[in-house]
């Protein structure tokens, strides 16, 4: 059940419309940075393996097999070590993920201002960012300037919403998007780790109980 829950959360994060709309973009020959998906794929793998390992442990408990329970414990230790490693990697790279996406957006934004839309897809990339995140321009574009590019690249706003353009920085929206998603991944990883610790303890208790009972 825990493996199924983790797998479901990971698949939901993987197919979330906001992240997929952004991370599948391509600017010329350059692909949008998709380092974020590394953590998602790890969660998917952990969830799928947990389901299989859970079945192995359940079957071993029913059969009172020390071999199966020992294998179950070993698999849990390996999964736990992989999860700890993935958690450390995610903590180290949590700021870099948003930074890479912001750099990709800035590059597309600069090209959209100077390149012809017929020969470059930068405008389409920027518009996708703006429509997906409901934002308008990077931080350094929020100073007084000619509003012509806003009319062309930003989502259509009514007169009341135009007043709030200054608070709609795409850099801020990108930070909010990935910090929220990484927060969910972190919660899922902690839940899995706690469940794994209890599983390892209980499997060893059960294995030792079976071994002691066989003596009599």
UniProtKB/TrEMBL annotation:
SUPFAM superfamilies tied to this protein: Tetraspanin
Domain of life: Eukaryota
Family: Belongs to the tetraspanin (TM4SF) family.
Protein name per the record: Tetraspanin
Organism name: Jacana jacana
Transmembrane segments: 36-62, 68-92, 182-206
Matches recorded under Gene3D superfamilies: Tetraspanin
Subcellular location: Basolateral cell membrane; Membrane
GO terms, biological process: adaptive immune response
Disulphide-bonded residues: 135-170, 136-154
PANTHER family: CD81 ANTIGEN, TETRASPANIN
